[in-house]
Amino acid sequence: MESKRQQKFSSLLQQELATVFQRDLPHLFPGLPPGISTVRVAPDLGVARIYLSLLLTTNGDAVLQEVRDHTKEIRLALAKRIRQQVRVVPTLVFFLDDSASYAAHMDQVLSDLNIPPTTTNDDEPDSTTGPKRPKLFADEDE
């Protein structure tokens, strides 16, 4: 579980990295810049794991590799933006966030399930007589 300090720092990194991708380094991404779905920070705030959401791109691995190739440039642009707020700029490690594709896969699996309809059970109450009482003793008559 992340501490309040980690949560605040990860929120700051997420906002500033989104700004870096959109305003400072748009030349790195010819189409749409990748979205940042989650940022997780180590307890010492030295390493930040950034999960990129690449929903609208067809080749996510190529975009991820492009981001990884330009990590130093991205970290430098981030450092210029947050230098007054933090003591040390964390090491950035980028990962592909595949939660959207996983959710689509699970939705497909659930829709493909063949669930037979339920059969009527004799224990169900009849609407004319009311609910059945449970038998408390073996010799009890109905």
Secondary structure elements and pairings:
Elements: H1 4-24, E1 35-41, E2 47-53, H2 60-69, H3 71-82, E3 91-96, H4 99-111
Parallel strand pairs: 2-3
Antiparallel strand pairs: 1-2
Helix pairs in contact: 1-3
Quick structural overview:
Its main location: cytoplasm. Helices cover 39% and strands 14% of the residues. The protein has four helices and three strands.
CATH class of the domain at 4-98, please?
Alpha Beta
User: Can you count the beta strands?
Assistant: 3
Q: What strand order characterises the main sheet?
A: 1-2-3
- In CATH, the architecture of the domain at 4-98 is 2-Layer Sandwich
Which regions have little confidence, pLDDT < 50, spanning 5+ residues? none
Largest sheet: 3 strands, mixed
Oligomer classification: single chain
- Distance between the ends: 57 Å
State the helical fraction.
Answer: 25-40%
User: How many individual helices?
Assistant: 4
CATH fold description of the domain at 4-98:
GMP Synthetase, Chain A, domain 3
Query: What percent strand?
Result: 5-15%
Describe this entry's structure for a reader.
With 142 residues, the protein is of the alpha+beta class. The protein has a domain at 4-98: GMP Synthetase, Chain A, domain 3 (2-Layer Sandwich), CATH 3.30.300.20. Helices cover 39% and strands 14% of the residues. It has 4 helices and 3 strands; from the N terminus they run H-E-E-H-H-E-H. The chain has a 3-stranded mixed β-sheet, covered by helices on one side. The radius of gyration is 27 Å and the shape is elongated. The termini are far apart. The model has no long low-confidence stretch (mean pLDDT 84).
